Amino acid sequence: MKVAVLVKQTPQLSEVTMGGEGPKWPEGTDVVNPFDEYAVEEAIRIKENHGAGTIAITYGGTDAVSALRDVLALGIDEAVHIEADSYSATDPQNISRVLAACIKKLGDIDLVLTGKQACDDDSAMVAFAVAAHLDWPQIGFVKKFDKIEDSGISAWRTTDTGYDIVEVPLPAVCSVVKEINEPRLPSLKGKMKAKKAEIQKLSLADLGIEHDKTIEIMNIQSPPQRSQGEILEGEPDEVVGKLIGKLKADQLI
Asked: Using the 8-state DSSP alphabet, how is residue 116 labeled?
Protein backbone atom coordinates (compact mmCIF):
# COMPACT_ATOMS: atom_id res chain seq x y z
CA MET A 1 0.00 0.00 0.00
CA LYS A 2 1.13 3.53 -0.73
CA VAL A 3 -0.31 6.65 0.90
CA ALA A 4 -0.05 10.11 -0.64
CA VAL A 5 -0.59 13.17 1.54
CA LEU A 6 -1.39 16.50 -0.10
CA VAL A 7 0.37 19.41 1.57
CA LYS A 8 -0.24 23.12 1.11
CA GLN A 9 1.95 26.01 2.23
CA THR A 10 0.02 28.78 3.97
CA PRO A 11 0.90 32.07 5.70
CA GLN A 12 1.39 32.17 9.46
CA LEU A 13 -2.10 33.44 10.27
CA SER A 14 -1.04 35.13 13.50
CA GLU A 15 1.10 37.47 11.38
CA VAL A 16 -1.55 38.35 8.78
CA THR A 17 -2.96 41.87 9.18
CA MET A 18 -5.89 43.60 7.49
CA GLY A 19 -5.72 47.05 5.94
CA GLY A 20 -7.89 49.19 3.74
CA GLU A 21 -6.74 47.34 0.63
CA GLY A 22 -7.21 43.85 2.04
CA PRO A 23 -4.92 41.40 3.83
CA LYS A 24 -1.23 42.06 4.21
CA TRP A 25 0.64 38.77 4.03
CA PRO A 26 3.71 38.30 6.24
CA GLU A 27 7.11 38.31 4.60
CA GLY A 28 9.34 35.28 4.76
CA THR A 29 8.74 31.55 4.53
CA ASP A 30 5.22 30.23 4.87
CA VAL A 31 4.34 27.17 6.97
CA VAL A 32 2.64 23.83 6.40
CA ASN A 33 -1.11 24.32 6.52
CA PRO A 34 -1.97 23.40 10.14
CA PHE A 35 -4.83 21.10 9.09
CA ASP A 36 -2.49 19.18 6.76
CA GLU A 37 -0.27 18.33 9.74
CA TYR A 38 -2.93 15.87 10.90
CA ALA A 39 -3.02 14.21 7.48
CA VAL A 40 0.78 13.92 7.52
CA GLU A 41 0.72 12.35 10.99
CA GLU A 42 -1.98 9.87 9.95
CA ALA A 43 0.01 8.87 6.87
CA ILE A 44 3.06 8.22 9.05
CA ARG A 45 0.98 6.14 11.48
CA ILE A 46 -0.37 4.05 8.60
CA LYS A 47 3.23 3.56 7.49
CA GLU A 48 4.26 2.45 10.99
CA ASN A 49 1.27 0.19 11.64
CA HIS A 50 0.64 -1.26 8.18
CA GLY A 51 3.99 -1.04 6.40
CA ALA A 52 2.73 1.45 3.83
CA GLY A 53 4.94 3.68 1.72
CA THR A 54 4.32 7.42 2.00
CA ILE A 55 4.75 10.34 -0.37
CA ALA A 56 3.96 14.05 0.05
CA ILE A 57 2.78 16.17 -2.87
CA THR A 58 2.61 19.95 -3.04
CA TYR A 59 1.82 22.41 -5.81
CA GLY A 60 3.27 25.90 -5.75
CA GLY A 61 6.20 28.22 -6.28
CA THR A 62 9.82 27.54 -5.45
CA ASP A 63 9.38 28.33 -1.74
CA ALA A 64 6.89 25.45 -1.40
CA VAL A 65 9.87 23.08 -1.13
CA SER A 66 10.27 24.06 2.53
CA ALA A 67 6.88 22.53 3.32
CA LEU A 68 7.99 19.24 1.79
CA ARG A 69 11.23 19.22 3.76
CA ASP A 70 9.22 19.82 6.94
CA VAL A 71 7.10 16.70 6.36
CA LEU A 72 10.09 14.63 5.25
CA ALA A 73 11.68 15.49 8.61
CA LEU A 74 8.64 13.99 10.34
CA GLY A 75 8.96 10.63 8.57
CA ILE A 76 7.35 10.86 5.11
CA ASP A 77 9.38 8.74 2.66
CA GLU A 78 9.25 10.74 -0.58
CA ALA A 79 8.17 14.14 -1.85
CA VAL A 80 6.99 15.62 -5.15
CA HIS A 81 6.95 19.34 -5.93
CA ILE A 82 4.74 20.49 -8.80
CA GLU A 83 6.31 23.78 -9.84
CA ALA A 84 4.27 26.64 -11.24
CA ASP A 85 5.08 30.34 -11.47
CA SER A 86 1.41 31.12 -12.15
CA TYR A 87 0.20 29.20 -9.11
CA SER A 88 -2.88 30.62 -7.37
CA ALA A 89 -3.21 29.53 -3.75
CA THR A 90 -6.91 30.38 -3.68
CA ASP A 91 -8.06 28.49 -6.78
CA PRO A 92 -9.17 25.08 -5.45
CA GLN A 93 -10.64 23.86 -8.74
CA ASN A 94 -7.39 24.39 -10.63
CA ILE A 95 -5.28 23.07 -7.75
CA SER A 96 -7.32 19.87 -7.54
CA ARG A 97 -7.01 19.28 -11.29
CA VAL A 98 -3.23 19.56 -11.09
CA LEU A 99 -2.94 17.34 -8.00
CA ALA A 100 -5.15 14.66 -9.55
CA ALA A 101 -3.01 14.65 -12.68
CA CYS A 102 0.10 14.18 -10.52
CA ILE A 103 -1.49 11.25 -8.67
CA LYS A 104 -2.40 9.64 -11.99
CA LYS A 105 1.16 10.11 -13.27
CA LEU A 106 2.70 8.54 -10.15
CA GLY A 107 0.36 5.64 -10.74
CA ASP A 108 0.84 3.52 -7.60
CA ILE A 109 -1.17 5.48 -5.02
CA ASP A 110 -3.78 3.56 -2.99
CA LEU A 111 -4.91 6.20 -0.49
CA VAL A 112 -4.80 10.01 -0.62
CA LEU A 113 -5.01 12.00 2.63
CA THR A 114 -5.55 15.73 3.08
CA GLY A 115 -6.37 18.09 5.90
CA LYS A 116 -10.04 19.09 6.13
CA GLN A 117 -9.29 22.51 4.60
CA ALA A 118 -6.59 25.11 4.09
CA CYS A 119 -6.47 27.92 6.63
CA ASP A 120 -5.97 30.65 4.01
CA ASP A 121 -9.07 30.16 1.83
CA ASP A 122 -11.11 27.72 3.99
CA SER A 123 -12.75 26.25 0.88
CA ALA A 124 -12.60 22.57 2.02
CA MET A 125 -13.03 21.69 -1.66
CA VAL A 126 -9.72 20.22 -2.82
CA ALA A 127 -10.03 16.68 -1.41
CA PHE A 128 -13.47 16.15 -2.94
CA ALA A 129 -12.52 17.72 -6.27
CA VAL A 130 -9.39 15.53 -6.47
CA ALA A 131 -11.57 12.45 -5.87
CA ALA A 132 -13.94 13.61 -8.61
CA HIS A 133 -11.10 14.11 -11.12
CA LEU A 134 -9.73 10.65 -10.27
CA ASP A 135 -13.22 9.07 -10.16
CA TRP A 136 -12.32 7.52 -6.80
CA PRO A 137 -14.57 7.13 -3.73
CA GLN A 138 -14.02 9.65 -0.95
CA ILE A 139 -14.68 10.08 2.76
CA GLY A 140 -14.60 13.61 4.14
CA PHE A 141 -13.81 14.85 7.64
CA VAL A 142 -12.51 11.53 8.99
CA LYS A 143 -11.96 11.39 12.76
CA LYS A 144 -10.89 7.74 12.97
CA PHE A 145 -9.96 4.82 10.73
CA ASP A 146 -11.47 1.52 11.88
CA LYS A 147 -9.99 -0.69 9.19
CA ILE A 148 -7.17 -0.18 6.69
CA GLU A 149 -6.59 -3.10 4.33
CA ASP A 150 -5.34 -3.49 0.78
CA SER A 151 -8.90 -4.03 -0.40
CA GLY A 152 -10.54 -1.10 1.37
CA ILE A 153 -10.93 1.13 4.42
CA SER A 154 -13.55 1.85 7.07
CA ALA A 155 -13.67 5.29 8.72
CA TRP A 156 -15.68 7.46 11.07
CA ARG A 157 -16.94 10.48 9.14
CA THR A 158 -17.75 13.51 11.29
CA THR A 159 -21.27 14.94 10.93
CA ASP A 160 -23.19 17.79 12.58
CA THR A 161 -24.89 15.31 14.90
CA GLY A 162 -22.09 12.81 15.53
CA TYR A 163 -20.47 10.51 12.98
CA ASP A 164 -21.17 7.95 10.24
CA ILE A 165 -19.16 4.77 9.73
CA VAL A 166 -18.33 4.55 6.03
CA GLU A 167 -16.57 1.75 4.14
CA VAL A 168 -15.08 2.24 0.67
CA PRO A 169 -12.77 0.24 -1.60
CA LEU A 170 -9.29 1.46 -2.47
CA PRO A 171 -8.03 3.58 -4.12
CA ALA A 172 -9.79 6.40 -2.28
CA VAL A 173 -9.40 10.00 -1.06
CA CYS A 174 -9.97 11.07 2.56
CA SER A 175 -9.81 14.41 4.34
CA VAL A 176 -9.15 14.26 8.08
CA VAL A 177 -10.07 16.46 11.04
CA LYS A 178 -7.79 17.41 13.91
CA GLU A 179 -9.49 14.98 16.33
CA ILE A 180 -7.88 12.06 14.47
CA ASN A 181 -4.44 12.33 16.14
CA GLU A 182 -1.80 14.53 17.73
CA PRO A 183 0.95 15.54 15.24
CA ARG A 184 4.50 14.73 16.29
CA LEU A 185 7.51 17.04 16.27
CA PRO A 186 10.52 16.39 14.00
CA SER A 187 13.67 14.83 15.42
CA LEU A 188 17.13 16.25 14.82
CA LYS A 189 17.97 13.15 12.82
CA GLY A 190 14.84 13.65 10.74
CA LYS A 191 15.71 17.30 10.04
CA MET A 192 19.22 16.39 8.91
CA LYS A 193 17.91 13.65 6.65
CA ALA A 194 15.28 15.96 5.16
CA LYS A 195 17.90 18.57 4.23
CA LYS A 196 19.67 16.03 2.02
CA ALA A 197 16.57 14.34 0.63
CA GLU A 198 15.96 14.49 -3.11
CA ILE A 199 12.62 16.03 -4.05
CA GLN A 200 11.07 15.03 -7.36
CA LYS A 201 10.21 18.02 -9.57
CA LEU A 202 7.29 18.04 -11.99
CA SER A 203 6.01 20.85 -14.19
CA LEU A 204 2.51 21.40 -15.55
CA ALA A 205 3.91 20.36 -18.94
CA ASP A 206 5.07 17.05 -17.42
CA LEU A 207 1.47 16.49 -16.32
CA GLY A 208 0.01 17.55 -19.65
CA ILE A 209 -1.85 20.49 -18.11
CA GLU A 210 -2.04 24.15 -19.00
CA HIS A 211 -2.77 26.71 -16.29
CA ASP A 212 -6.46 27.58 -16.45
CA LYS A 213 -7.50 30.38 -14.13
CA THR A 214 -10.97 29.54 -12.83
CA ILE A 215 -11.36 32.05 -9.99
CA GLU A 216 -10.66 35.77 -9.81
CA ILE A 217 -10.73 37.38 -6.36
CA MET A 218 -12.13 40.88 -6.68
CA ASN A 219 -11.76 42.00 -3.08
CA ILE A 220 -11.05 40.74 0.44
CA GLN A 221 -12.38 42.65 3.45
CA SER A 222 -12.74 42.13 7.17
CA PRO A 223 -16.33 41.42 8.27
CA PRO A 224 -18.16 44.55 9.45
CA GLN A 225 -17.74 45.30 13.13
CA ARG A 226 -20.69 44.24 15.22
CA SER A 227 -22.68 46.89 16.99
CA GLN A 228 -22.42 46.90 20.76
CA GLY A 229 -24.99 44.70 22.47
CA GLU A 230 -27.64 46.04 24.81
CA ILE A 231 -27.78 44.96 28.45
CA LEU A 232 -31.25 44.76 29.97
CA GLU A 233 -31.33 45.63 33.66
CA GLY A 234 -33.89 45.03 36.37
CA GLU A 235 -35.48 42.17 38.24
CA PRO A 236 -35.65 38.81 36.40
CA ASP A 237 -39.37 39.07 35.58
CA GLU A 238 -38.90 42.65 34.42
CA VAL A 239 -35.93 41.73 32.19
CA VAL A 240 -37.90 38.85 30.63
CA GLY A 241 -40.75 41.24 29.84
CA LYS A 242 -38.38 43.75 28.23
CA LEU A 243 -36.71 40.99 26.16
CA ILE A 244 -40.04 39.64 24.91
CA GLY A 245 -41.13 43.16 24.01
CA LYS A 246 -37.99 43.78 21.97
CA LEU A 247 -38.26 40.43 20.19
CA LYS A 248 -41.86 41.17 19.24
CA ALA A 249 -40.92 44.67 18.08
CA ASP A 250 -38.27 43.15 15.79
CA GLN A 251 -40.82 40.54 14.62
CA LEU A 252 -38.58 37.71 15.82
CA ILE A 253 -41.44 36.12 17.76
From this structure: S
Over range 108-121, report the average pLDDT. 92
Q: Using CA atoms, how far apart are residues 62 and 64, in angstroms rounded to an integer?
A: 5
pLDDT tens-place string over residues 151-206: 999 999 999 999 999 999 999 999 999 999 999 999 999 999 999 999 999 999 99
Task: Spell out the residues 6+ positions from residue 44 whose beta carbon is closer than 8 angstroms to its own.
Answer: 54, 74, 75, 76, 184
User: Which of 21, 96, 97, 33 has its CA nearest to residue 64?
Assistant: 33
- Name the residue among 117, 153, 124, 120 with its Cα closest to residue 136: 153
pTM (predicted TM-score)? 0.83
pLDDT (average), residues 54-59:
96
The domains of the chain, with CATH numbers, are: 2-203 (3.40.50.620)
Mean pLDDT of 60-75: 92
Q: Could you give the 3-state DSSP secondary structure of residue 64?
A: helix
Distance between CA 246 and CA 224 in Å, rounded? 23
User: For residues 137 and 172, is the Cβ–Cβ distance under 8 A?
Assistant: yes
Q: How far is the C-alpha of 78 from the C-alpha of 69, rounded, in Å?
A: 10
Q: How far is CA 187 from the centre of its chain?
A: 24
Q: Which residues of 18-43 are buried (b: 16+ CB within 10 A; e: fewer)?
A: eeeeeeeeeeeebbbbebbbbbbbbb
Residue 91 has pLDDT above 90, yes or no: no
Over residues 211-234, the mean pLDDT reads 77
At residue 130, the 3 state secondary structure works out as helix
HEC sequence for 163-174: EEEEEEECCEEE
